[in-house]
Amino acid sequence: MNNPTNTKVSIIIPVFNAGSYLRQCLDSVINQTLHEIEIICINDGSNDNSPEILEEYATKDKRIKLIHQCNSGTGTARNKGIRAASSPYIGFVDADDIIVSTMYEKMYNAIKSNNVELVHCDSFIFYEFNTLNTAYPDYHDWFSHFAGKHDNKTIQNIDGVLWNKLFIKEILTNNSLYFPEGMCSVEDTCFTWCYFAITNNTLFIDEKLYYYFIRSGTVAASNYEKTIGERQKEYIECGIFFYNFLINNNVFLDYQIAFWQRFAEYIGMFFAIGNEEMNRNYALPVIKDFLADKDISCLVEEKYSMLQLIKNGQPDDDRIDNTTDKNTERTVYLSVLRKICKNILQKAFFVFQRS
What we know:
This protein has 355 residues and is an alpha/beta fold. It has two domains: 218 residues, Spore Coat Polysaccharide Biosynthesis Protein SpsA, Chain A; 126 residues, no CATH class. The protein has 14 helices and ten strands. Strands 1, 2, 3, 4, 5, 6, 7, 8, 9 and 10 form a ten-stranded mixed beta sheet that branches. α1 links the parallel β1 and β2.
């Protein structure tokens, strides 16, 4: 197929050891009814047959732009894709997923004709480990919440996925919005939160146009298989990244309620179910340092109490002489903190179930 002179959408696909599923992914992309697309595949240091498959498809379809890099993670790969993109709109596809043939035509037409800054669609989500292949609960109601004008409620409840969305490249480049690099599981969440915060409105397409798979041995699966401690560390980093982005783009005051509500929920979740040693030795000092000069007065009840407790810090070693007393007071401190966090987690889950 000839390379179109004016592409409408750049589709970015990071690839790492996806050889078992890559052909069906690429077939679904090259057969889009929107022909004016650019397909940017970034081989992230794969050591299976993914590079050969990519070369084969790039030879057959000139719309495919192939980039090779040493294994650096999906954040770095997607950033290279953004910088290489020549289209006004950008979408992201995971290398082991499949998209409906009309997905990008419908997304493109929707964003062009409705004067919105983000379009997203419904999806099928499958969890496939060993012989288990079951669909997730229907996410329609969850995704459909994020339609219309953005406000604190929108930002507080947005999903963090990339693959069901169409972004405007100019907004990314004008605001220097790229993925944080070095993270393994939440760089997409950081990116999506930031994009919502600097845009005004969203359109939801009420059709399932994306098949998302969590398969054993893939990047998506490895993210779900991470230890609680690893995910906790990255969510703390994500929260701080999001805060700095809001400050640097002068929108923090617009969304401070949403930020602190979301930050408190994630911190509460991981303190409620996380590893005590991780909480004590990493999470508490990092969060305390982050909160030192922050005003969290917009929070109420448990969320305020939790962050204020962390901000005040663990019992001071210098004022407690007896080692037994130190350990006892620390245990009480962590017990109180964990109890508050469990209440936050239960309320957040209840709200999600009702929403």
